[in-house]
């Protein structure tokens, strides 16, 4: 049975300490100097694996209540330390498990009091379930208010998850951190907040949301111009964001922006790392924990593009191709529009290498809600995302070469006056593997070994693609019609049959024909690389069982994530 994987602030340090001395490690984990200290003196710790010039930065707990991101980073460190295939002379992994240690301490210290010291594991899981259910119900309140089922005042009432903390012993809270305790308790008292707001605290000890803490955050102006208090949404609806509090407050003084110490540390760290001689940040993965989706597309900030000479199209392509690689392991939906939320990440995303913000869990109810289902947490959240990270590292050279191939293809198509929006570039990337699996597999091989002379294959590929784009062939028609003419269709048909049978077993109504088509479309749209490999192997009489098994487990995860029958987003 899967374990309750909760870690409080002290647990994180202890687990990493143990990890550093683990004799089974094949790659050394080093503790570096902290990248900085918070206002209240907590270190922002930094660990590395590998000594190569290509740095991949991984951070957790920007939002403190999203503690599962830190738990994930610790497990990722554990896994990478034992990976014999990791190229330690080529890459350095820079882990910052907790960007916001004050907030992490505030949140988990309150949760510790709720979970209890000597509670057995089953009881902790059951408490996490209660927390999860209460939080979910609270998050529904705004919708009920909107529908007139509840009065407007319900928004400002104490939330039921907050009430779970009413009777905690405050004497025991934040022992050993009196200054942090004083400050957060004074925020709570001045606003007459329930003590339970500390249980899902996302800001730092000064009540500033680090993710929102950038000077060009449009929320600053909106908040400044508001007449009267501005409240948060959903489960935080009884707290304000125009003054320091648990979440979404961008800075201390709206009229005079200042960076928080944690963000200064993060910005300095990234800039210093990137400016080292012969070293560069090739990717930054910033883990958050809402929704179970991935943000990958940067907001186009013209002044930033000019200031740092950033090639936006390259960025868009590299991030998208990378998120597809991630998706082939974690089954998460890719958000294709510009990201409206992660403000600090926008700067980092445009400035340094490939950047994907993975929102780890769709369970919601941070911090402990996602831990209430240990099996799902381990097998749908942690393991597939570790795999996704590894796929990225293993495929980095291919991602870069393939992206530059796509970029040159796009400019050739533009020369022929075919106009390209970002969405059309995304479509093109998806289409290539879907419609030209054999060619794609060949191209993959060529791009992986750059020393081979691949110019002829690539120019051949250009022509093929141009023709395919001009012919406007309807995708996947042959599969929809169940034409059992080739080996791929026979195998895929069998796979589909057993999948629909299993799905139907769990439904009151069998799948309709439309749903079946949507399912087929989604499988093709979502896992083009895998489908390409299956097609290639089928057509060349190679083994396909393992690939189908992989496809099956991805779909299984998608069922758990609830995104199997999503209609493609309007492009
Ligand atoms: Zn977040």
The major beta sheet can be summarized as: 8 strands, mixed
- Treating each run of at least 4 consecutive H or I residues as one helix, how many helices? 21
Specify the CATH homologous superfamily of the largest domain. Zn peptidases
- The strand line-up of the biggest sheet is 1-4-6-5-7-10-8-9
Structural class: alpha/beta
Low-confidence stretches: 476-484
* CATH T-level topology of the largest domain: Aminopeptidase
Strand content: 5-15%
Supply the number of structural domains. Answer: 3
User: Architecture of the largest domain, CATH level 2?
Assistant: 3-Layer(aba) Sandwich
Helix content percent band: 40-55%
Number of strands: 10
Task: Tell me the overall shape.
Answer: globular
First CA to last CA: what distance?
43 Å
CA radius of gyration is 25 Å
Spell out which ligands are present: zinc ion
Q: Mean pLDDT, rounded to whole units? A: 89
CATH hierarchy, class of the largest domain: Alpha Beta
Topology, pairings included?
Blueprint: H1 9-20, E1 29-31, E2 36-37, E3 43-44, E4 47-49, E5 54-59, H2 67-81, E6 91-96, H3 101-115, H4 121-146, H5 160-163, H6 178-190, H7 218-225, H8 261-275, E7 280-286, E8 293-295, H9 302-308, H10 312-330, E9 333-335, H11 343-351, E10 354-359, H12 374-394, H13 396-415, H14 422-435, H15 437-448, H16 455-471, H17 477-480, H18 487-505, H19 513-526, H20 528-539, H21 545-561
Parallel strand pairs: 5-6, 5-7, 7-10, 8-9
Antiparallel strand pairs: 1-4, 2-3, 4-6, 8-10
The structure holds zinc ion (ZN).
Zinc ion (ZN) is lined by residues 63, 66, 211, 288, 290.
């Amino acid at each position: 049975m899967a374990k309750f994987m909760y870690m409080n602030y002290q647990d994180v340090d202890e687990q990493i300490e143990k990890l550093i001395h683990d004799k089974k490690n094949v790659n050394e984990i080093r503790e570096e100097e902290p990248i900085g200290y918070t206002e209240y003196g907590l270190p922002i710790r930094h660990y590395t694996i590998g000594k190569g010039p290509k740095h991949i930065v991984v951070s957790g707990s920007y939002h403190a209540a999203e503690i599962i991101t830190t738990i994930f980073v610790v497990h990722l460190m554990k896994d990478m330390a034992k990976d014999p295939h990791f190229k330690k002379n080529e890459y350095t992994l820079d882990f910052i498990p907790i960007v916001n240690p004050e907030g992490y301490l505030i949140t988990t210290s309150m949760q510790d009091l709720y979970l209890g010291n000597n509670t057995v594991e089953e009881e902790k899981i059951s408490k996490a379930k209660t927390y999860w259910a209460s939080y979910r119900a609270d998050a529904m309140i705004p919708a009920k208010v909107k529908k007139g089922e509840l009065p407007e005042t319900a928004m400002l009432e104490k939330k039921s998850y907050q009430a779970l903390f009413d009777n905690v012993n405050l004497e025991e809270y934040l022992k050993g951190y009196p200054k942090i305790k004083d400050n957060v308790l004074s925020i709570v008292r001045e606003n007459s907040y329930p003590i339970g707001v500390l249980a899902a605290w996302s800001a730092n000890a000064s009540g500033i949301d680090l993710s929102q803490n950038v000077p060009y955050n449009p929320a600053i102006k909106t908040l400044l111009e508001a007449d009267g208090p501005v409240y948060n949404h959903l489960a935080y609806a009884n707290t304000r964001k125009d003054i320091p509090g648990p979440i979404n407050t961008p800075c201390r003084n709206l009229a005079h922006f200042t960076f928080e110490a944690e963000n200064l540390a993060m910005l300095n760290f990234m800039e210093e790392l990137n400016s080292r001689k012969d070293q560069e940040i090739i990717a930054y993965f910033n883990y958050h924990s809402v929704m179970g989706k991935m943000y990958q597309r940067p907001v186009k900030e013209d002044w930033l593009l000019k200031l740092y000479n950033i090639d936006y199209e390259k960025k868009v392509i590299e991030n998208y191709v990378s998120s597809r690689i991630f998706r082939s392991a974690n089954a998460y939906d890719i958000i294709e529009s510009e990201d409206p939320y992660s403000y600090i990440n926008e700067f980092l995303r445009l400035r340094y290498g490939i950047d994907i913000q993975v929102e780890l869990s769709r369970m919601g109810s941070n911090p402990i809600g996602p831990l209430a289902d240990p099996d799902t947490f381990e097998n749908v959240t942690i393991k597939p995302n570790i795999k996704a990270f590894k796929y990225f590292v293993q495929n980095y050279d291919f991602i870069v070469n393939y992206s530059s191939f796509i970029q040159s293809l796009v400019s050739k198509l533009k020369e022929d006056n075919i106009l390209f929006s970002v969405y059309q570039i995304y479509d093109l990337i998806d289409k290539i593997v879907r419609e030209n699996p054999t060619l794609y597999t060949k191209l993959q091989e060529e791009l992986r070994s750059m020393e081979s002379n691949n110019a002829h294959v690539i120019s051949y590929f250009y022509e093929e693609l141009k023709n395919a784009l001009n012919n406007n062939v309807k995708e996947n028609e042959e599969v929809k019609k169940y034409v059992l003419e080739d080996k791929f269709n026979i195998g895929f048909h069998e796979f589909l049959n057993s999948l629909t049978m299993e799905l139907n077993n769990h439904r009151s109504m069998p799948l309709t024909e439309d749903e079946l088509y949507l399912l087929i479309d989604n499988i093709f749209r979502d896992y083009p690389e895998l489908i390409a490999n299956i097609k290639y192997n089928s057509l060349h009489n190679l083994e396909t069982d393992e690939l189908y098994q992989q496809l099956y487990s991805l779909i299984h995860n998608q069922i758990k994530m609830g995104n199997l029958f999503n209609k493609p987003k309007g492009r």
